[in-house]
Amino acid sequence: MSAEIPIAALALAAGRSSRMGSVNKLLREIDGVPMVRRVVKALIQGGLDSVTVVTGFESDKVQKCIEDLDVNIVHNPNHFEGMGSSISTGARSVNCSALSGILVCLGDLPYLRPEIVAKVVHAFVEDGAERIVLPMHKSQYGHPVIFPARFRKQLESLTGDEGARRFFSEENTLAIEVEDSCVVNDLDTLDD
Fold it and tell me: Which residue ranges make up each domain of the chain?
């Protein structure tokens, strides 16, 4: 990534996978690779300046899946509260004074590809880091989502299970259409 537009990525890997029953979906192997590892590698290969993995539930097992990758790992002690607390924990952990954007990505997008990550990053850079940029597949918002640095305080203030979608507006959001459903196909249940 260009040194002029530093983007820090947050991979959310803290959830309890409650809809999966007793299985931690992030540890499930997809084509022989744990799901969380697949997502983190897509972010790394997508050209980001830094990747921070926010852990919580079974953090030791999640960390073991990615310990050899060049990532920062931060534990969310309040992971049981929900996604908002994990985004907040991750945003507060980013250590970059010249940050242009924070990318937020779910840890349960098993088929996310580096090319899609790079496409979202490219759109953010081309837009001048002015708007929230996210992929859209067949009129459905997806992940990863990049927030301009000016949203950092709002991301840090999130709590509970509230995500960051409330910050989207027609004026400040750029949705880019992608043909690949990997941006919306997260796994929540065993049927998925």
Answer: 7-183
Distance CA 65, CA 74 (A): 14
With both helix axes pointing from N to C terminus, report the angle between 59-66 and 35-45 in degrees, rounded to the nearest 10. Answer: 50
Q: What is the pTM of this model?
A: 0.90
Tokens encoding 42: 């897509």
Query: Is the bond preceding 144 in cis, omega lying within 30 degrees of 0?
Result: yes
Spatial neighbors of 13 by CB under 8 A, at least 6 apart, are 26, 36, 39, 40, 53, 54, 55, 56, 62, 107
Distance separating alpha carbons of residues 164 and 182, to the nearest angstrom:
20
Q: Positive or negative, the Cα torsion across 19, 24, 26, 31?
A: negative
Q: Tell me the pLDDT tens digit for each residue of 106-165.
A: 999 989 999 999 999 999 999 999 999 999 999 899 999 999 999 999 999 999 887 888
Q: Rounded to the nearest 10 degrees, how much is the dihedral formed by the CA atoms of 53, 108, 91, 2?
A: 80
CATH topology of domain 7-183: Spore Coat Polysaccharide Biosynthesis Protein SpsA; Chain A (3.90.550)
